[in-house]
Specification:
single chain; alpha+beta; 6-stranded mixed β-sheet; 6 helices; 25 strands; elongated
Length: 434
Amino acid sequence: MYSIGGIALNLHKSIRRFSVIVIASVGLSVSGLLIQSGRVAADSAVNSYIFNQHLTPANVTKSIWSGFPKNAYTAGAPTGVVVHETGNPSSTIYGEIAYMKRNYQNAFVHSYVDASRVINIADTNYLAWGCGFPGNGRFIQFEQVEVHSKAAFAKEVNNAANYTAELLHQYNLPLNNAVNDGKGTVWSHKAVAKYLGGSDHVDPDGYYAKAGQTYFGEAYTMNDFYTLVKHYYDNSSASTSSSTTNQTSGTSGALNANSASQQAAVKYYRGQGNETATLLPTFSHYRLYNHVKGAGYSTYSYSWASLPAYTGKKVYVDSRGVKTPSKSTWYRIRFNKAANAQKYWVFSKTLSFNPVTYSDSNESITIKSGKYALRNHVYNTSTLSKVTGSTQSILNQTFKVNKKANKTHGKGTTHWYRFKLNDQNVWVCEQATE
């Protein structure tokens, strides 16, 4: 059952069934999960096969069709992912995509997955019609095509799990299993129908159970699938992550194959989210990516041609990544202030930040204004910064400065002071002392 404008429709149910995985925000412990040497060992024959065979997830192929409608999510951005399964044992991924384009007025999803491909056909920044009201307005949705061998099924769920984890990271969503309580970010279509309504479908649970029993001697479940999603999510969300390096072809939308010959690690630093930089004259010498290039994710690149990019263009920066052993720095940017705007990773030589110089200091300052933030670094510079407190809490107190910074910006120069507060270094702008 699918919903358009809140009206539920039964659509050739005997021929096709859509299954959705939804991603939400409530935590759930996973039994039978053991981390060994950075990999997951699970009480699942399918997952064990995936890890023992060292299966590598397929990269995402973007093939966005302009004919799909573009309607905003209820909350402005997706809050989870729903996994669908077509319910058609004789279809192919390209046949399903062609059918979807012909019948999108009734129903459509964002992407399709099979044993060797993940094809994104609808812009995930806009909702799809795959699981009825209210799920359509909340979740990214993708279909799995039925496959018919042991190896193909393992590859398909591996592709689907990795893609789910990537979508969660792309939209800054936490990882939580919604299947058992209707609260979370990873859903099956069956869970959507059970907890949210708008549909009476039960996929992909039946397909998973049958394929698991047929090819591996035991039913595969959505909880087993969630364990696999967690492996990929954790592998790419840790503050320092080590994984296989990707090689990028350098063409727009090009996909990178994983290389087992080199390991890369990235340490991430989050900023407040509203700090800015400008594009340098040499920005077009580099490309934009969905992840830090060479950091072990399924990575593809974007062309500047489709973006409002020019020398001096202001962009918003929310994260910094430092790769080892190269020590190269990358930044995650967006082209407008909205927190849910499309985000891209770029090499540091693409951007210009406000210059800042540092010097040791032993002067004293007194906080005279309570309307300024305390920060872990100087605001709006290449380090990025986060708010750690407010000057209101230390009003009229005097502190000994251990470091001073002079930041140059469009309106002149601003002085910043660093001092100890509760055994932690904090920065404050000079305006708070005036």
